[in-house]
Design brief:
By secondary structure, this protein is of the alpha/beta class. The chain has three domains: 200 residues, NAD(P)-binding Rossmann-like Domain (Rossmann fold), CATH 3.40.50; 85 residues, N-(1-d-carboxylethyl)-l-norvaline Dehydrogenase, domain 2 (Orthogonal Bundle); 137 residues, Rossmann fold (3-Layer(aba) Sandwich). 44% of the residues lie in helices and 14% in strands. It has 17 helices and 15 strands. The strands form three sheets. Strands 3-2-1-4-7-8-9-10 form an eight-stranded mixed β-sheet, with helices on both faces. Strands 12-11-13-14-15 form a five-stranded parallel β-sheet. A two-stranded antiparallel ribbon has the order 5-6. α12 crosses α13. The chain is elongated. The site of nicotinamide-adenine-dinucleotide has 28 residues, from α5.
């Protein structure tokens, strides 16, 4: 019986599912990871990490031994006590796309056994676990919730690239369809995670915790970007304004976001639209959230326009400048380019600049990006023959290597700092024209 309790299937082995599968395996669970991506399955079965620059995870997956197997065979679900679904929840033109959750739910429903616990970890709007997942599971299996099987939502909070917090020590919230569902899920997560596992009153409340966390972040970034746009318009430096605000932060503990070319990744730009769509369906006014999301989405164009103004101030035209775009990922020190604002910047620069070459220490030419067409293998190659630099991601290696002197020695005449990463005074002292976002 105890052996059966410690069996787990994880559906979807991406940034969320694989770390959970590995953590559970390290905690003594017999884990079957199920995914539809054969290449990924092969990497996992060789005990290699699919993520660049994550030493902690590399060591963890190397240690799982026989406790983890990865397969595309969904019948493995029949043999486990707990099934966790971690498939993507993207948006298409800002409309939530639940098709992958539905398809994973159908695959689980076809194998569902009496007594099993099913948990949805994917980020969704309030109502999806009860209104979308539950009918699929009940209808296809003939089993009944609370009596024959258990269903809960426990949103993931993993933050790829974060050295302090990982799946094993992140606080979690859990909401079940019934009280027994919540209890089963709390027990499961308590076995794996060394942090608070908090029970909420319903699946909807748990769903809203996560989608609101990311909506909050989106709005805070929009607020910072709107302050930066005001600074640009009125000739102030946002960094000095932020230094001033720090004295308030020190005493009152406010949490400030910083301006830039906008948020990216699978979560922050997408999840706000799950909240907006669900609220609108119930006739709730969402204009405040609409404006925040739109402002952030427009930051890449805004920043490219700033580069064009910088050139105009010197009597030049962006159309005659060769631009090096530095950084393609949505945040520093990871290799994830999903919904990265840098990619939108690349589309814009391909259209409006004379030429574009990109460089990212964590993204290779083979990353399958539609844009930019040319990805350099080194920083030196990107800077060679460029007139202007556009900084899109503040990777640590770029912070270290991209000195004002290096820019000067490579004949760079313009810098658009989309992450306010460089020392503006040091750059301009060398005769290089500089604009940041709000400075
Ligand atoms: N990436 C993050 O930092 C993060 C953090 C917290 C929450 N989330 C949420 O977690 C969910 C998963 O995100 P992710 O970043 O891990 O996605 P991902 O794209 O990294 O991985 C998802 C995996 O699911 C697989 N998959 C898709 N459809 C499937 C199916 N029907 N059956 C089996 N496998 C299938 C894909 O092949 C892929 O390997 C999303 O809802 C996301 O919003 C992500």
């Amino acid at each position: 019986m105890e052996d059966y309790e410690k069996t787990l299937a994880v559906i979807g082995l991406g940034y969320v599912g694989l770390p959970l599968a590995v953590e559970a395996a390290l905690k003594g669970y017999a884990v079957t990871g199920i995914d539809i991506n054969e290449t990924l399955l092969s990497i996992i079965n060789q005990r290699k990490s699919p993520y660049a620059n994550d030493k902690r995870f590399e060591d963890a997956i190397a240690k799982v031994g026989d406790n983890l197997s990865a397969t595309c065979d969904f019948t493995a679900i029949q043999k486990v006590s707990t099934v966790v679904i971690c498939v993507p929840t993207p948006t298409e033109h800002n409309v939530p796309d639940l098709s992958l959750v539905e398809s994973a739910a159908k695959s689980v429903a076809a194998q569902l056994q009496p007594g099993q616990l099913v948990v949805l970890e994917s980020t969704v709007n309030p109502g999806v676990t009860r209104d979308v997942l539950l009918p699929i599971l009940e209808d296809a299996s003939g089993l009944r919730i609370g009596k024959d099987f258990f269903l809960a939502h426990c949103p993931e909070r993993i933050d790829p690239g974060n050295d302090t917090f990982y799946v094993g020590n992140l606080n979690r919230v859990v909401g079940g369809i019934t009280e027994a569902c919540t209890e089963r899920a709390v027990t499961f997560y308590s076995n794996i995670i060394d942090a608070k596992i908090i029970s909420l009153g319903s699946t909807e409340e748990a769903e809203f915790v996560k989608s609101w966390e990311n909506t909050h972040r989106n709005v805070m970034i929009a607020l910072a970007n709107s302050a930066a746009i005001i600074c640009d318009g009125l000739g102030m430096d946002i960094n000095r304004v932020l230094d001033g605000l720090q004295s308030k932060v020190d005493q009152f503990g406010l949490k400030l976001a910083t301006p830039g070319i906008g948020p990216g990744g699978h979560c922050i730009p997408e999840d706000i639209h799950y909240v907006i769509r669900r609220a609108r369906e119930s006739g709730i006014d969402t204009r405040f959230l609409d404006d925040a999301a739109e402002l952030n989405d427009k930051m890449p164009q805004y920043a490219v326009r700033q580069l064009s103004f910088l050139a105009k101030d010197k009597g030049e035209d962006l159309r005659n400048l060769r631009v090096a775009l530095l950084g393609l990922t949505y945040k520093p020190d990871i290799s994830d380019t999903r919904r990265s604002p840098a990619i939108e910047v690349a589309y814009q620069l391909e259209r409006y600049a004379k030429s574009l070459i990109a460089y990212d220490p964590y993204v290779s030419y083979t990353a399958g990006l539609a844009s930019p067409a040319v990805v350099a293998e080194s920083l030196a190659e990107a800077l060679d023959k460029a007139d202007a630099v556009f900084i899109a991601t503040a990777h640590h290696v770029l912070r270290e290597q991209l000195t004002p002197e290096l820019l000067h020695d490579n004949g760079i005449r313009y810098v658009l700092d989309g992450r306010n990463m460089l020392d503006k005074d040091a750059v301009t002292k060398l005769g290089i024209a500089y604009r940041g976002i709000g400075r």
